[in-house]
Amino acid sequence: MASLLPIPEIEPSPEISPEFQLKKRRKTEEKPASYHRMQGNQRMNRWRTRREQQIYSSKLIEALRRRSPRTSSSANGNDVRDTAYRVLAVSAKGTTHWSRAILISRLSAKMRKHKKAKVSANWKLRKPAAAGNSENRKMPAVERKLIALGRLVPGCRKLSFSNLLEETSDYIAALEMQVRAMTAVTEFLTVGNDGGTQSPADPLGPNVNS
Amino acid sequence: MSSRRSGGSRMSDDQIADLVSKLQRLIPELRGRRSNKASASKVLQETCNYIRNLHREVEDLSDRLSQLLASADTDTDQAAILTTLLI
User: Fold this and answer.
1) How many CB atoms are located within 10 Å of the residue B40 CB?
2) DSSP 3-state assignment of A112?
3) Between chains, do B44 and A78 touch, taking CB under 8 Å as contact?
4) Model confidence over B13-23: pLDDT tens digits?
5) Which of A62, A76, A178 faces B58 most closely, judged by CB atoms?
6) Core vs surface per residue A120-156: b (16+ CB within 10 A) or e
7) Closest partner residue to B54 among A145, A161, A175, by Cβ?
8) I need a surface site. Which of A27, A81, A85, A134 has the fewest CB within 10 A?
9) CA-CA distance, A76 to A73, in Å (whole number)?
């Protein structure tokens, strides 16, 4: 029996590695698909840890702070969103298709902006038949939905069924973490702005009648 | 059953059902019910909807965040430090 490779390069959070070892002992199949699934489970659970969320929050804030002096404090919603996705993809450490696709598309978008090349090149390559024409190939509803799903998850249009589901699971877990982190940061900043816990030098603030 | 539809999927139906059920467990919509009720089509549909919802939430949060950052430039340094420590 070919033994599986030892533990992959993902950093072992204490709440994850015993679970991973348990899974390794249980599923000693030889097919690489199941190995990826195991790895996928561990990857997916990583997005649920508090530590990962903290890392993401701090990286996001750092990236946003670095950006705003350059864009002359006109922090666009789209810029924030792009930064958020980029930081999320970086946090995935290049282990998933969608994270690599996000980073690659950012790179090529930046180069396209400088060189003023045709942006629509990618869209023309996409076959119109893939848009859901219920002609010959795409009649089963499951097929159509699979394609729609492949379009939603970045970089996953041509994956096999099992890989696509794998990527989807990880992508959903990552998105949930992103929403949690951004919500926490937003609430924190809101409280900071309105509550005035860090009131600047305001001599007339609390001193009313004393 | 011939599984030649999706470009050479050599998996058995059991494996497909297993993956679909695994995906179903992630979708909050479908988690409450008994897991063997949802068909693959419904699971995929709900997955697409859920991802779209998450995208929209991220968009809204990005807008709010950008407004907050724009309106409080001098405080962002302090806020940033505090956030990384407390969250």
Assistant:
1) 18
2) helix
3) no
4) 888 888 888 88
5) A178
6) eeeeeeeeeeeeeeeeeebeeebbbbbbbbbebbbbb
7) A175
8) A134
9) 9
